[in-house]
Amino acid sequence: MFCPKCGCILRPTDKGGKRVLACGCGYVAGKSENFNLKEKGMENKKIEVVDSKINILPIIEIICPKCEHKKAYYWTKQTRAADEPETRFFKCEKCDHTWREYS
Ligand SMILES: [Zn+2]
Ligand SMILES: [Zn+2]
User: Fold this and answer.
1) Is residue 3 part of a domain?
2) Element holding 54 (H helix, E strand)
3) C-alpha span between 68 and 8 (Å, rounded)
4) Can 83 be counted among the known catalytic residues?
5) Is 48 assigned a catalytic role?
Protein backbone atom coordinates (compact mmCIF):
# COMPACT_ATOMS: atom_id res chain seq x y z
CA MET A 1 0.00 0.00 0.00
CA PHE A 2 1.16 3.51 -0.77
CA CYS A 3 0.51 6.76 1.08
CA PRO A 4 -2.15 8.85 -0.75
CA LYS A 5 -0.54 12.04 0.56
CA CYS A 6 3.11 11.62 -0.49
CA GLY A 7 3.30 8.30 -2.36
CA CYS A 8 5.69 6.56 0.03
CA ILE A 9 5.26 2.91 1.01
CA LEU A 10 3.18 2.53 4.18
CA ARG A 11 4.82 0.65 7.04
CA PRO A 12 3.07 -1.35 9.80
CA THR A 13 3.19 0.59 13.08
CA ASP A 14 1.74 0.05 16.54
CA LYS A 15 -0.70 2.77 17.46
CA GLY A 16 -2.79 2.60 20.64
CA GLY A 17 -2.25 -1.17 20.86
CA LYS A 18 -3.46 -1.67 17.27
CA ARG A 19 -1.33 -2.49 14.28
CA VAL A 20 -1.91 0.09 11.56
CA LEU A 21 -0.24 1.11 8.32
CA ALA A 22 1.45 4.48 8.68
CA CYS A 23 3.68 6.80 6.69
CA GLY A 24 6.58 8.99 7.77
CA CYS A 25 4.60 12.10 6.76
CA GLY A 26 1.99 11.47 9.49
CA TYR A 27 -0.65 9.71 7.39
CA VAL A 28 -2.21 6.69 9.11
CA ALA A 29 -4.30 4.21 7.15
CA GLY A 30 -7.14 2.61 9.08
CA LYS A 31 -10.86 2.36 9.52
CA SER A 32 -10.84 4.24 12.83
CA GLU A 33 -9.72 7.50 11.22
CA ASN A 34 -12.32 7.31 8.47
CA PHE A 35 -15.02 6.57 11.01
CA ASN A 36 -14.19 9.66 13.05
CA LEU A 37 -14.35 11.90 9.98
CA LYS A 38 -17.75 10.48 9.06
CA GLU A 39 -19.13 11.08 12.55
CA LYS A 40 -17.98 14.69 12.58
CA GLY A 41 -19.69 15.32 9.24
CA MET A 42 -22.94 13.88 10.52
CA GLU A 43 -22.84 16.12 13.60
CA ASN A 44 -22.45 19.22 11.44
CA LYS A 45 -25.38 18.18 9.27
CA LYS A 46 -27.63 17.72 12.30
CA ILE A 47 -26.89 21.23 13.57
CA GLU A 48 -27.60 22.73 10.14
CA VAL A 49 -31.01 21.07 9.99
CA VAL A 50 -32.00 22.47 13.40
CA ASP A 51 -30.90 25.98 12.43
CA SER A 52 -32.85 26.02 9.17
CA LYS A 53 -35.99 24.86 10.99
CA ILE A 54 -35.81 27.84 13.33
CA ASN A 55 -35.30 30.28 10.47
CA ILE A 56 -38.17 29.02 8.33
CA LEU A 57 -41.09 29.75 10.65
CA PRO A 58 -44.35 30.42 8.83
CA ILE A 59 -45.70 33.97 8.87
CA ILE A 60 -49.38 34.69 9.42
CA GLU A 61 -51.43 37.84 9.47
CA ILE A 62 -52.01 38.79 13.07
CA ILE A 63 -51.78 42.12 14.83
CA CYS A 64 -48.89 42.50 17.26
CA PRO A 65 -50.22 43.70 20.64
CA LYS A 66 -47.12 45.80 21.16
CA CYS A 67 -46.44 47.68 17.91
CA GLU A 68 -49.59 46.82 15.88
CA HIS A 69 -47.55 45.35 13.02
CA LYS A 70 -49.82 43.02 11.05
CA LYS A 71 -47.52 40.05 10.47
CA ALA A 72 -45.93 37.58 12.87
CA TYR A 73 -44.10 34.27 12.84
CA TYR A 74 -45.93 31.46 14.56
CA TRP A 75 -45.27 27.99 15.89
CA THR A 76 -47.09 25.54 18.12
CA LYS A 77 -46.01 23.68 21.21
CA GLN A 78 -47.72 20.68 22.74
CA THR A 79 -48.31 21.09 26.46
CA ARG A 80 -47.31 18.38 28.92
CA ALA A 81 -50.71 16.73 29.06
CA ALA A 82 -51.41 14.92 25.78
CA ASP A 83 -55.18 15.61 25.83
CA GLU A 84 -54.72 19.39 26.10
CA PRO A 85 -54.71 21.46 22.89
CA GLU A 86 -51.39 22.83 21.70
CA THR A 87 -50.42 26.38 22.51
CA ARG A 88 -49.80 28.77 19.65
CA PHE A 89 -46.86 31.13 19.87
CA PHE A 90 -46.42 34.32 17.86
CA LYS A 91 -43.38 36.48 17.27
CA CYS A 92 -43.80 39.89 15.71
CA GLU A 93 -41.94 40.24 12.41
CA LYS A 94 -41.08 43.85 13.20
CA CYS A 95 -40.37 44.26 16.92
CA ASP A 96 -39.66 40.62 17.93
CA HIS A 97 -42.35 40.77 20.61
CA THR A 98 -43.42 37.21 21.47
CA TRP A 99 -46.76 36.20 22.86
CA ARG A 100 -48.95 33.14 22.99
CA GLU A 101 -52.55 32.24 22.48
CA TYR A 102 -54.51 29.54 24.24
CA SER A 103 -56.95 27.89 21.90
ZN1 LIG B 1 3.11 10.02 3.31
ZN1 LIG C 1 -44.52 44.14 17.12
Assistant:
1) no
2) helix 31-55
3) 70
4) yes
5) no
Name the pLDDT band for 33 (thresholds 50, 70, 90): very low
Residues with a beta carbon under 5 angstroms from ion ligand 2? 64, 66-67, 69, 92, 94-95, 97
Please indicate, yes or no, whether residues 65 and 95 belong to a single structural domain of this protein.
Answer: yes
Contacts of 16 (CB under 8 A, 6+ apart): none
**Span 13-35, average pLDDT:** 78
Q: How far apart are CA 68 and CA 65, in angstroms?
A: 6
Q: Is residue 50 part of a domain?
A: yes
Q: What is the pLDDT of residues 47-87, one digit of tens each?
A: 555 554 556 789 999 999 999 999 999 998 876 776 777 88
Same domain, yes or no: 51 and 77: no
Pair 48, 78 in one domain = no
| Residue range(s) defining the domain that contains residue 88 | 59-101
For residue 28, report the distance from its CA to the centre of ligand 1, in Å.
9
Contact 77, 89 (CB under 8 A): yes
